[in-house]
Amino acid sequence: MKKEFIILILFLVKMSSCCAQLQPMFVEGFAQGTTYHITYIDKEERFFKKEIDSILKDFDFSVSTYNPNSIITKVNTNKDVVLDNYFLTCFNQGKKVWKDTHGTFDPTVFPLVNAWGFGPGKKQKIESRKIDSILKFVGFNLINLKNNKVVKSDSRVALDFNAFAQGYSVDVIASFLNSKGITSYIVEIGGEVYAQGTSEEGKKWVIGIETPIENKAASNPIIQNIQLDGLAIATSGNYRKYIEEDGTKYAHHIDPRTGYPTKNSLLSVSIVSKKGIISDAYATGVLVMGLEKAIKFLKKHKELEAFLIYADTEGKYQFYETPRFKLLKI
What we know:
alpha+beta; T-fold; eight-stranded antiparallel beta sheet; three-stranded antiparallel beta sheet; disordered N terminus; ApbE-like_sf; transferase activity
């Protein structure tokens, strides 16, 4: 699944010489086309990799557009399918964020994502007529749920939850750890993070937000560190995943309103909230808005904390942060 950004996790793994101090448990692996890293404190020293991998496999079977047998793929191809809680949660949360952002976040952007070559489908030759024809069946108003079944106004409408599914998967794993009585942990999947409690040293978990340098492979230098406890962070940017065509770079964030890749001064949007699915979805919607509209939006939505990195007229980094975001900085 997608990720155009990486939030570098700074796991606090320095071991103490005190024999009474609990040692952290580490679980890592691959899921959703990316990696995951989980650290937790458990007095019983239980190792949950098997359970976590099973959960993430079930999650992928629900909402991955890259899985030909997934629930979302069957919905997109108009096959009969029983919707599960993962799909329903994504659909309902997606509908809410779509309304809040006035369409800058829209999971029905999938046909455009494919056309531009950012999805599992074959890239198409981009022409204005082609974009206009696709836009006719892009819009979250064209698809609804009725008695937990999908109802489309146009059979060509197709969903893509990749813009916030990884954030939701972080929530799912956090919920699993909570169910096991784990109260101190940090979960990172594809760069999306939720942290709760403290490390083995009794300190809050620390993560770093990357400098938005064009880079498809490696990690970038950290531009800001923050502490999290009972909070999730997700970052969307236009520097990690892009294509080049005829000498022009196109970021993979598609503006659902125009059908074209987003092009504005925002380079990176980090959103902090109580849930990964919320942070992830709004990070995408805010990035597509552009700087001025994003600032106005964030002033109205005080449940979201944000750190925006943008380029000024000289190409230099500038920053905007919400008031309470400052309290997270170290």
